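call fold target=Endonuclease III
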Amino acid sequence: MNQTQARTILDTIADMFPDAHCELNHSNAFELTIAVLLSAQCTDETVNKVTATLFQKYKRPEDYLAVPLEELEQDIRRIGLFRNKAKNIQALCAMLLDKYNGEVPREHEKLVELPGVGRKTANVVVSNAFDVPAIAVDTHVERVSKRLGLAGVNDSVLEVEKKLMKRVPREEWTQTHHRLIFFGRYHCKAQNPKCEVCPLIDLCREGKKRMKSNSNRKPIPKAKAAVKAAKTKEA
């Protein structure tokens, strides 16, 4: 992957998703931190449904600590791993009050010390809440980066992040993060990616293999196809 190819990828996804943005609903850094914590192994859509009422009930760290853990668990039970996340939320709120006057710290190294907050969450918070350039690598960013050759197939999440930071100009880090997510979420999906209409197919080794495999498949006669469909339905 040379710089010209990387630039082509960045410009193409910018044209495809010029308005890419954080899809987690929030009104401040604290709400964003809670929302990102909840989003682990869960869709943004589900998180937004839960936080629509959660953020009306809990507005400050004190509010999350004023209820029993079991009550908070019930409030977020639609979220995957809700018990562990509820425990982390209360521990996070306690630390915010104890160390930071109830405010979410702006520094990345302080954010990652908070319970339930990893490197990805910290990157999302500093970039979206505090306008500090950062690239958060979630499943979409990782998948797209590896498919397009921006990172190696066997690279760790941290290695993907470091390679993106080298290939993408710093002032474009945050926007590129959002665009890669949109590209992965709505176009280059994990299952059934839109390779046949992808403007980046020539740069995607996996996409070219997928297209070649599809073109080499022998068409199933209509009669056989009907029988096959019927058997599948019966099964």
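return ok
The radius of gyration is 21 Å. Confidence is low (pLDDT under 50) at residues 219-235.
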